[in-house]
Design a protein that fits this description.
5-stranded parallel β-sheet, 5-stranded antiparallel β-sheet, 20 strands, elongated, 13 helices, alpha/beta
């Protein structure tokens, strides 16, 4: 209870009752209802409880309606003087407590006996007010469920926790407001798999009394972006100490996880770029320095051509470093992209002579279109430059991975030796004399999408690049 409660009394000779009540210290402050009603609306809201005295001739319905307009959710206690035979019809809706007293009851003594009831009601109302304020303003998902898994309290954030501003169940029914969720179980709101897992957690908490702490899960919105969620559930203890349900709190930790992953990815990129600088730039730099020394000593003009080629090589490497850095930023602006369409578009723009493209999929995936285009371009180019055996033609296939949601790019060329699979995505090992960016950039773009790459041998003996963890678009 917050402070000393203020109780308004509506009944006969109330001023005398107020004077008698204030002669000594009392557990609450007493005012007449007429005094409260005559004050400004904001002041009347400060009343914590109303006690209404009635008899057989009192029209309670009209009186309770008027009181409720002034005091909002404050508890109302009705004291009926005399015997009422039809109790249900005598007590209207909106009354918190009701009981009957004899006509000769002492009102001061009566109010003293009501003190504990007033405190109980006011404390319950204050607790409810605090809970309502908490559920309205907390910036995360908070909910309470009974032992059967039915929601009995829900914070305002729950319907819009992931993506759209509503929860849509498998039947297509949307729940926009917290009141839409009250009384429903997870099976009424989510997929069977998710509901089964959540209900099992709830029952574990209820039956064992042990909390489930900081469980991290991933959910996906319509955009295909994964939302990292951290959930803690703990028992809801009833007044007698028994577990009456479970309380859960779920935070969206996507930004934190994204930052952690971005930091790790950035550190990995820095290490790869350091390798590129130390491995690839050092060689042409040594050539340029050596040729310059010879040119200074001999004046041989042919040395300057070699120096120019070395500097061009360094310039290309610096451009590669910048490209890798830019393409390695997290891919957050994702769109549904049809693999068939983008693969054919890249192929036509590159105009590879003597090679064939075969696309065996019609799926669309969530991706950054520009970066996916660049990824395919480098994979096609790598297959053409390094997969051909002599002058033989080569066939490149783009397809989907069964039961995975990902895709692959394979060729029927010479393949990549197994002992190079672990190193092929490292800078400086692309096999090109002019750029080290090819396959390392493919790895960088995949990592920016949170995809993983697996390099295997194709059915025809060539190279097969598989991309896992890809979100498909379901039209």
């Amino acid at each position: 209870m917050i402070g000393v409660p203020v109780v308004a009394y509506r009944g006969p000779d109330v001023e005398t009752l107020v004077d008698r009540w204030t002669e000594r210290d009392r557990p609450f402050t007493l005012r007449s209802w007429e005094t409260v009603r005559s004050t400004a609306g904001a002041d009347s809201r400060s009343v914590d409880c109303v006690v209404v005295e009635s008899d057989a001739g009192t029209d309670l319905n009209a009186g309770i309606e008027e009181i409720r307009e002034h005091v909002g959710s404050a508890p109302i206690i009705v004291v009926t003087v005399g015997q009422i035979t039809d109790l249900e019809s005598a007590v209207p809706d909106g009354v918190t407590s009701h009981f009957t007293v004899s006509p000769d009851v002492d009102r001061v003594e009566l109010l003293s006996k009501l003190a504990s009831l007033v405190e109980e009601h006011v404390t319950a109302r204050d607790a409810r007010s605090m809970l309502d304020s908490l559920l309205t303003n907390v910036p995360f998902s908070m909910y309470a469920k009974d032992r059967r898994g039915r929601h009995v309290a829900v914070s305002d954030v729950v319907p819009s926790m992931i993506g759209a501003p509503y929860i849509e169940n498998p039947e297509g029914k949307r729940h926009h407001h917290p009141t839409d969720i009250l009384g429903k179980t997870d099976f009424d709101l989510y997929s069977a798999a998710l509901a089964t897992e959540s209900f099992a957690d709830d029952q574990s908490v209820v039956e064992t009394g042990d909390p489930i702490e900081q469980r991290i899960e991933e959910s996906h919105a319509e955009s295909g972006l994964g939302t990292k969620l951290m959930t803690t559930k703990f028992p809801w203890d009833g007044p007698d100490g028994s577990v009456v349900g479970s309380i859960g709190v779920t935070w969206d930790i996507s930004k934190r996880k994204q930052y952690e992953h971005q930091l790790k990815r950035q550190n990995d990129r820095v290490r790869r770029l350091a390798t590129m600088v130390s491995h690839d730039i050092r060689n042409p730099l040594s050539v340029a320095v050596g040729r310059l020394e010879v040119a200074q000593a001999t004046g041989d003009p042919d040395q300057f051509d070699a120096i120019g080629r070395a500097l061009d090589r360094i310039d290309a490497l610096v451009a590669d470093i910048i490209t890798v850095m830019r393409q390695g930023e997290p891919a957050t602006d994702l769109d549904p992209v049809a693999l068939r369409d983008i693969a054919h578009d890249v192929w036509e723009n590159c105009a590879f002579e003597g090679a064939v493209l075969r696309v065996s999929t019609t799926v669309s995936v969530y991706a950054d279109p520009g970066r996916l285009r660049l990824l395919l371009d480098h994979l096609f180019t790598n297959a053409i430059e390094h997969g051909r055996d002599g002058t033989d033609d080569i066939t490149i296939t783009v397809g989907e991975l069964p039961d995975d949601g990902g895709f692959f790019v394979a060729d029927d060329g010479a393949g990549i030796p197994t002992d190079r699979h672990e190193q092929i995505f490292q800078p400086g090992l692309s096999g090109s004399d002019t750029s080290t960016i090819g396959l390392p950039l493919v790895a960088t773009i995949a990592d920016a999408h949170n995809w993983t790459i697996q390099l295997t041998q194709s059915d025809d003996g060539g190279a097969r690049f598989e991309f896992h963890g890809v979100r498909q678009f379901d039209a």
